[in-house]
Write a structure and sequence with these properties.
single chain; alpha+beta; six-stranded antiparallel β-barrel; about 20% helix; elongated; DUF4330 domain-containing protein
């Protein structure tokens, strides 16, 4: 029995070119798996778990009924992952404004009737890496300026992270 037969198959089972492609794919998949697990292990070793974090969210131009549906003590989640982001510890409300110009061309801010801006502060538990590169709350990356769809039992908002302490 020959190792490679007249059709180019190894032991008559598989073409040697197909075998090479399968080996390359397996090696690449293994390399990415090992690198990914190695980075996760390093991150877990370098993190400070369960550190208290205050996340401030900014929600623009919502109606009064939406503002009234949020109470201190409500728990908000990230809609995308379902992970708990934190509990409301502070709620600030202001009239929503829009930038416009007057008849002379000066920039002014006009109040939008029946619309409000809401600033929510959530108390969370999260992980901060030693290098302060990554901040995660329930495995959700949080950075100032990131837009997130958040929800409580009663309401869902598109919010922007306004501050992290």
């Amino acid at each position: 029995m020959k190792i490679i037969d007249e059709k180019g198959r190894i032991f008559g089972l598989i073409n040697y070119l197909d075998l090479m492609v399968l080996l390359i794919v397996a090696l690449l998949a293994g390399k990415f798996f090992v690198l990914d697990n190695d980075e996760n292990a390093k991150e877990l070793l370098q993190s400070q778990s369960n550190k208290e974090i205050l996340l401030t969210y900014y929600i623009k131009g919502i109606k009064e009924i939406s503002v009234n549906s949020v109470k201190e003590g409500d728990v908000f989640r990230d809609v995308e992952t379902g992970s708990i982001l934190g509990e409301v510890v502070k709620k600030e409300v202001a009239n929503s404004q829009i930038q416009t110009t007057d008849t002379e061309g000066n920039v002014i801010y006009s109040i939008i009737p029946d619309r409000y801006d809401l600033i929510l502060t959530l108390k969370s538990k999260g992980n901060v890496t030693e290098t302060d590169r990554d901040i995660k709350v329930s495995n959700v990356d949080v950075q100032i300026g990131r837009s997130m769809l958040i929800e409580s039992k009663l309401i869902r908002f598109m919010a922007v992270i306004y501050g992290i302490e």
